[in-house]
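User: Modeling request: complex.
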Amino acid sequence: QKEVEQNSGPLSVPEGAIASLNCTYSDRGSQSFFWYRQYSGKSPELIMSIYSNGDKEDGRFTAQLNKASQYVSLLIRDSQPSDSATYLCAVSSGSARQLTFGSGTQLTVLP
Amino acid sequence: DGGITQSPKYLFRKEGQNVTLSCEQNLNHDAMYWYRQDPGQGLRLIYYSQIVNDFQKGDIAEGYSVSREKKESFPLTVTSAQKNPTAFYLCASSSGTSGNTIYFGEGSWLTVV
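Assistant: Request completed. Predicted assembly structure:
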């Protein structure tokens, strides 16, 4: 069974700080990696995708991938209260490239 | 506007009833998916379809059925065999190509009464 595990939450950071979210996965054949943000009662929204080892930056968000360690992370710089949400790590594998999701990490940014 | 439309947004089911959740996309995506989310949990894959007239079971297909008669449509039926159907149901689609970014509809809340 393919597994995706995220660091247990909830996670609280003060406004302006860096939030660090971590994720490990079990399937070495995984090809694509995604971070989704989900506000309470809403559907997930894609915020980052990463496909190769290293860092990928997009505004205040940086995704980091280490396939040897089967580890992917998301850094949120200058955290804002509007970043308060649950962050879902998702890993794509298989012939249909279906996503396997972690259980999510709830982030609260305190004003 | 392009996107994925799910309906209804809220649905109540009586014991023993079958209900069908609609999912339509106008993104011209080949692949479509149904996920279930329970409170405080991640998403679990119910069924997926890579092409019209073909679909495969996901991790929790028991008690559910789907059809894919048109590229744009992928309805999910929650049958009476599904003993604990109360959840948030999410339909998604992707182009199916390398990279395979999956986009979600707004979701449907199903409650058993």
